Amino acid sequence: MKAPHADPLSAAVRRHAETADPPADALAAAFAALPAGRGRQMLETALAHGVDAVPNAPPALREFFALVDTPPLWVDWARIEHGGALFLRSGLVGIMVLTLACLPMMYRLPSGNKPLVFTGQMLRRAPRRLAETARFMLETSAPGGLRRQGAGFATHVRVRLMHAQVRRLLRPSGRWNADWGAPVSQLYMAATGVTLSVVFLDGLRRLGVSVEPDEAEALMALWRWSGHLMGVVPELQCSTEAEGRHLMRCLEAFEGPPDDDSRALMDAVMHAPYLPELAPHRWRLPLSFDLSRALIGDALADGLGYPPPGGWRWLRASLVPLVGAIDGWQRLVPGARRRAAERGAVVTAAIIRRIAAAAHAPGPA
Amino acid sequence: MKHDALAMLTPDDWALLARHMRRVAYPRGARLLTEGARERALWVVRSGAVRVERLLQGRTIVLRELGPGELLGEIGFVEDAPASASVVAQDDCTADVIDGDVLQSLVAAEPGFAVRFYHSLAVALARRTRSGDAARAAAGPPQRAARTGNLSARQVPPELEAGLEAFEREMLAARSALRRGAPPAGEAARAAAACDAVVALMDVHAGGDALVDIGWSDLLAFRDPGTIEAGIGDAVFRETFATFMESATMARCHAKPRGFADDHETVALMLRDEPEGDGWTGPLIDRWFLGRPLARSRREGVARVQALLREAAAAHGPGLRVASLASGTAAGLFAFFEQARDAAVTALCVDRDEEALLATARRAEAAGLGERMAFVLGDVLPRDGEALPLQRQHVVLALGLAEALDDEALVALLDRCHALLLPGGRLLLSALADGNPDRRLMAHLLDWPARHRSADELRALFARSAFAGRAPALVLDAAGVTLYADCTRA
Lengths: 365, 490
Hints:
- With 365 residues, chain A is mostly helical.
- Chain A contains 17 helices and no strands.
- Chain A is 67% helix and 0% strand.
- In chain A, α2 crosses α9 (151-170), α5 (77-107) crosses α14 and α8 packs antiparallel against α17.
- The model of chain A has no long low-confidence stretch (mean pLDDT 88).
């Protein structure tokens, strides 16, 4: 981790880098003391029917659900679902931005990427990780997804507890370096939310999608509520794009440049066989690198070890008018955006299924 | 038992007792009390020492020694049953005695005295019971929790499942071949390779990054690394148990008929190194196990003790006194005496396992060592501040003990050994090394929970004990299983 500056802001950032998620950590500890399967059973019962339906619920379970069951007063469901619709209507373009802009921004943070590269096996799970991230975004963005009984709400709770369990695996391993802060720290969780909101918006715009101001703020509201469910403390939750950009700058200043693990992760992402039908095509890799470079900028692309700009560097510029035209048409035709969101959800789900199937398929002999 | 056994008596009560006691002198060897006799009396040793001994299967076994101020006979008085042990004057001694009838009269005539007398006995008995329970709980090796619930189904690595299936196939093939008359040598190699592969599977999947990967494969199972390791061990145990239990030595380690894995008979099997087992493959698996580092280490230990005693005898000259704590088979002692039949060395074997002590005593008598080896039945660790009173020694052997003791108990043992040694005396202590190649085999296949320690940990424990300032010389045996600490008392 980059050496801390003397200013109070850096000290605050460092504090969040060393802080985890006490309620989730306590619940994971309680579940770890039970036989395999019992904790998950309790969790699923609490998610489906409420914590009162769990027989002999441990105190940590009750305390956890007391925090997530009731949304704060600033939660505006109409705005949140408006933000979700933006991701859904982005369809294939959204998946491209997620893969080629958001993931690089997540992996560039040296302290945040350490859990992902802790053992070599994790580098080989890039397709599965992408599928899981995309599914996470789909469930988060679906209408009602983040309401109490929504699939997105349940996924958030599960992922939050998975983060807690990751901490329980990494900390006692003897190889977790204290300089990296807490595994899946507050800082990393906040960074994830900022990446999936601010960076996602930037990516859409760079590919020609027109984002209305109210849509942008609605997306921020969605990811603020998402952050709250994930255990991000209030002082790291961003409610506006400007706040998100400011937090991103603080993180980048604190973390420093991408490291070898950042480059290893991105290399795994780019080379992973997401869709086997595309694998034989030699243009896939150069196209992916060039398009990603166009979305994240030369400085970060070089920092992540991308090859120099190649023959596809004109692609982004070519896509903009096409995407812009489609987007413009959707804006003008009544109901088109709604239908685009519905279609986008179907297309995204199909792509996710395809990637997930490829991730679980047996590898070459 | 000290005066504490009658801790509730007041000074007036003691004065009352003293008025009715008579002082008796006992020459060395005289019997104060005979085992089986119906004699109710209370003794307070005033000078000299007495020993309490029992006849076990024809052999006299010393239970304890008592010195000035110590009390005996109080339980016999209450029970009014035949004496469970004899009391013999260890040297010329004197004791104050009150006959049972006189004591009974006092109890009847002085209600206050009676209440305090019986209250004292009840407290002493309760303390003894609590001490025994606590000692068993605290000083024992870590106990294994349940063998299920430690892994989710998704967390069992496919490579592990494949490896265990391969083991089953290989052992089945070996059995079939032997049944058809194949030469055992070839099948022995096949069986050994298959068994080695099982150990390798545990090494791969039950440690290091593998635990993180396995945990990560199903995070919502909430399995921590320690639980995952146990779960991997459980999976291997369930699939291989029936086969490994064909081996006589492994079966005995697992069954623990004496309550612990390496009892004297189990160790004797390892030392004898003659494979035995059931079925077609039992002897082959036993041969494999007897060739493992753990068994080799036990055999190597005998030579190590023999060498140390030879060195000590040469340095000290005649009159060397050696105590072997938790003596078990005392194989090292016998090996030494076999090579140095005329050595003027006396050995004291201390063990709480009556069967082990008797077996060793019989062997000593058969070898003509009855005059040079003595046997004391008891626990080497002090209980409630009471230590088994033993004569101080030039050499103390504390082998096979450390693995059953937590850190506090091991420091207590080191203190005890220090107190037992004469100035310049030498302690040889063994501990299982943390790099023991058979650690997982012991834990998961033999249900043999044992504490393992690194050299640094052992040094730190010595530094906390009465040996502080005298760093032990630590040597890891060739098998990589046992760390030996050789330390001299200042």
